[in-house]
Amino acid sequence: MSLSIIESCVNCWACLDVCPSDAIYDAKPHFMIDAKKCTECEGDHADPQCASICPIEGAILDAAGEAVNPAGSLTGIPPEMMEKAMAEIQAR
Amino acid sequence: MELTVLNEEQSPSTEGGCSASACGSSDDQLAHLSDEIKQKVHNHPCYSEDAHHYFARMHVAVAPACNIQCHYCNRKYDCANESRPGVVSELLTPDQAVKKTKAVAANIPQMTVLGIAGPGDPLANLDRTFETFRRLSAEAPDIKLCVSTNGLALPDAVEELAKHNIDHVTITINTVDPEIGAKIYPWIYWNNRRIRGKKAAKILIERQQKGLEMLVERGILVKVNSVMIPGVNDEHLKEVSRIVKQKGAFLHNVMPLIAEAEHGTFYGVMGQRGPSNEELMDLQDACSGDMNMMRHCRQCRADAVGLLGEDRGDEFTIDKIEAMDIDYDAAMKKRAIIHQGIEEELAEKEKRRAALAAVKVPSGPAVDNKHFRPVLMAVATSGGGMINQHFGHATEFLIYEASRDGVRFISHRKVDQYCIGDDSCGEKESALAGSIRALTGCEVVLCSKIGFEPWGLLEEAGIAPNGEHAMEPIEEAVMDVYEEMIKTGKLDEAKSEDSQMTA
């Protein structure tokens, strides 16, 4: 049971500082999660901490390989609403 | 804690700029401050328009992590060629940061200020940020320390900040209204949860205001930065300005949104526009009143080194500083001598300015008591407070306003690096057209020299090129030109159509 970080990671360090299990390490080309140490924060926090602070949609996967923060979840704009939001912003 | 900042008792808004004390004494933005504060900021290039021509600053990039998302920021900060906040070339460990700071201080003795400004939020990187401050306050006590923050973690950090003798903190406050905040901040990381929307914005706003109050209580100077985002917080920033001033911030810095699509920020990608030069200037004027507005901010990178507007970061990469052998005690002695020289030069300049202020009291014959409109003039300068740059070499112009009340610094306007403006203002334009666009609203441009082609184009645009004051101090020359315009009857005419401001 472990989360994982994929190549869209921008190495911003935020996750490393908040991981309660010291499971995250600074690696090249991007940060990695030590699967042996990762607990998905069970017992420590309600939500996995790395995925709660990660600023990049899709960069952290759950044990099943699904994005914990899928497209639109961090901008607050689901893909189908994109066009409308863009028109609104460009009218400013 | 309930947010009490909205709908509180408010003084009526002051439209159109200077209403009182801060204005009138030339461009001295710090005029109304207590002597104690003036003493603290007089050699800080970011806080004093005068000082920034002489003193240098640097940022060390020890703070990569961030605890919120702003729509104008892109967390992919690793970029060598962009000049904007939140961008760095290489992250430093606290140890490397201390080495770099000493290396810069020894090689650029004019450097007086070390800031930690990112690329994330310094207070979301407490260990790295405070270790850097702790070591520098012990090992390089002649350097001022400052920090900037989004404010979320600020209340918890105030005690520690006070311990390290950090007397300057910058808080970025873009709004005091959660409704507006939700359009700027999509989420925050708070108490181990990701929180979104209005709820997130409300927490952030409360924390910023609380942090501001706590810092003021402890006598730590607070500057407030605001990003002007047209259609989102532009009108609202007048209220922000009033509130932060009431709470004791000593300086408010309204900066234009930088949102180019190629930067990959949410606003950039979505096509949110930045303000035009005129919109920015109007808002800064409207926000001023008694409040000190900062007008010379260069929105520098989180690893900038040198005078404002320049970046000598390339001379101090990790490889290069590791190879340097710095004797900091010797450097400190040399620095003290150089700082003394600059102080004397600044004092001399202040004296000249006071003399100038005395001269300009309307007393002449024909012009007595007549009202003349203020005039904006652009100046090409490479520093030192002088008109000493060729028009064609200027990557930015300083904009001054001359009136019978004196000369006032308004802003700087960049020419090449990025463009603040509408879609028609892109790379297709020649650099010259870009320069002329940057001068919209100005009636005169002062420079050391200027070529034939730009001369004609400037005149066509209703901007009078002027190379007659080369190597003269800026404010005196601007006043001379203004007096000349009065004498020759130029200000009796209406402003020419071409140089009218366009929105």
Shape-level CATH architecture of chain A? 2-Layer Sandwich
Give the domain tally of chain A.
1
Q: What distance lies between the first and last C-alpha atoms of chain A, to the nearest angstrom? A: 46 Å
Helix content of chain A: 10-25%
User: Strand-and-helix sequence of chain B, N→C?
Assistant: HEEHEHEHEHEEHEHEHHEHHEEEHEHEH
Number of beta-strand segments of chain A: 4
Give the radius of gyration of chain A: 15 Å
- The radius of gyration over CA of chain B amounts to 22 Å
What is the number of helices of chain A?
A: 3
The fold-level CATH name of chain A is Alpha-Beta Plaits
Count of distinct strands of chain B: 15
Strand order of the largest sheet of chain A: 1-4
Assembly context of the chains:
heterodimer
Mean pLDDT of chain B: 82
| Chain-averaged pLDDT of chain A | 95
Biggest interface: A-B, 25 and 30 residues
Q: Characterize the largest beta sheet of chain A: strand count, sense, and whether it forms a barrel.
A: 2 strands, antiparallel
Number of helices of chain B: 14
Biggest sheet layout of chain B: 7 strands, mixed
Q: N-to-C terminal Cα separation of chain B, in Å?
A: 41 Å
Main features:
heterodimer, A: 92 residues, alpha+beta, Alpha-Beta Plaits, two-stranded antiparallel sheet, two-stranded antiparallel ribbon, 4 strands, 21% helix, elongated, B: 503 residues, alpha/beta, TIM Barrel, Nucleotidyltransferase, domain 5, 2 domains, seven-stranded mixed beta sheet, five-stranded mixed beta sheet, 14 helices, 15% strand, globular, disordered N terminus, disordered C terminus
